[in-house]
Amino acid sequence: MPTRTGLAIAGAIAVLAPVAVALPAHSHGYTTNPPSRSSRCATGEVANCGPIQWEPQSVEGPKGFPAAGPRDGTICAAGDRRWAPLDDPRGGTWPAARMTSGVVSSFSWRFTAPHATTSFRYFITRNGWNPAQPLTRAALEPAPFLTRAYNGTRPGSTATHQGTIPAGKTGRHLILAVWDIADTSNAFYSCADVQLG
Question: Mind listing the UniProt keywords for this protein, alphabetically (predicted)?
């Protein structure tokens, strides 16, 4: 016959088990269209990337960008020194996806563990920025050109957002995608090099 202590323990387990299952999973993700620097490293298109080649989904840092978040010069690596090769502009020679400004385009993410989401925001560099320098806030337009609010819902294993790169953008640019997580103090940062026609 079970003891009172045994019944109390069994009851506590029954109450706590659903809570443990409901805890949020560790989230990770990166942009695949246009391909992010971490994606290009993971596919082997770009060499000498360091450990990001095995963890393209792990570029996570403090949220609150642009008022807070990673400091200038470390934005593409989310302020994490392990991913520092993503901040190296390589003399402006990262492979760049061809896109067209002024028309609707697709912006896609791949997730290894979706998370409750506040929003996805996409920033682009100003005309005349220097692609041979690490990314800074001053190099970016001050407001995102595309924002998708999720209000705490979770994306699936992928997400695609439709948006328009501002007309008048031509030549080499960098798109910074920021995935703001709703229930942690972090965000994911994804830098993609583009060539605008």
Answer: Signal
